[in-house]
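Notebook entry, cofactor series.
This is the third protein in the set we're modelling with a bound small molecule. For this one the ligand is guanosine-5'-triphosphate. I'm keeping the input format identical across the series so the outputs can be compared line by line later. Sequence and SMILES below, as received.
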Amino acid sequence: MTSTTDIIQKIGSGSIRAIARALSKVENGSSDSTEILDKLFSRQQGFTIGITGPPGAGKSTLVDRMITRYRSSANSVGVIAVDPSSPFTGGALLGDRIRMQSHATDSKVFIRSMGSRGHLGGLSGATRDATCVLSAAGYNPVIIETVGVGQAEVEIADLADITLLVLVPGLGDDVQSMKAGIMEIGDIIVLNKADRNGIEQLESYVKASLEYLPAESRKPDVVRISAANGDGLQDLWDSIDKLMASKTEENRITRSAVRTLNEILQENGVLFSEKLLDLEYGGRENAEKLMLTRQISPYAVGRNLLERAERMFKHNGSK
Ligand SMILES: Nc1nc2c(ncn2[C@@H]2O[C@H](COP(=O)(O)OP(=O)(O)OP(=O)(O)O)[C@@H](O)[C@H]2O)c(=O)[nH]1
Ligand SMILES: [Mg+2]
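Returned structure with ligand:
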């Protein structure tokens, strides 16, 4: 079996196999995954870019353009394609949903698709950890593509330093029903398929919606592009570069470390609670049975677990 040190060392020397192996481990939450992530966390250097938007908006076509852009300056590029509705991880979705085949044979481009499974922190935790692996392996930027505009997708895309929300003409009711809160997530709102009818209406609608953002919040740039034919891409690159330049490395690292710690504390909370449920009730199912027969309320379960933990801490002293 490959040891953690071995994997870390091989990632350091650019082994694609070691990177893939580390990714599988962190996605599945395997027992040595936190040890791997612990070693890799401080090695992250590059930027991360999140791209979200409704199905078929042209996100992958845009990612393909981005890869070309960053590869032309000799960077290696990592892509994580997240599909919350799919149970598959690894390579299963490639080719189907992702239009980045022009880079399929480029060894400096690492594309990974992720579905929902295994990780204690859910898909967003798995994506965060996969981003850490790729970033530490030297991919810069790491691009995270997520389908959808619900809260969960927004959360995933927002793991990144910069988030792009891709919208297209003809979304009709989808756009109408989009809350200003969703607009707020994009650092940059990309209006794609500018070659299509309806782009003017979309732009007016988006700009009007942005008026409702709270006065103190930063107004996102709105950039019209056609990912398919390349129109407007230079404006988008300029907008991204400007935003990147405004974020100091210290800011980015602090934000990422603090956010990750918050999430890990929550993940730990789940683990601790499960252990306490075992001790106090012989497992969660038993506590649930008691609740169903109205012998106990969820509040009492919570309080009993806390009291149990406090008794244990007291008993063990405060060493
Ligand atoms: N007319 C036009 N079509 C585009 C443009 N960009 C992408 N498309 C087309 O839109 C379709 C969907 O593109 P994708 O890049 O797969 O979209 P996506 O958002 O990644 O889709 P999912 O990952 O399935 O949500 C494809 O047929 C693209 O060729 C554009 O600027 N103009
Ligand atoms: Mg796609």
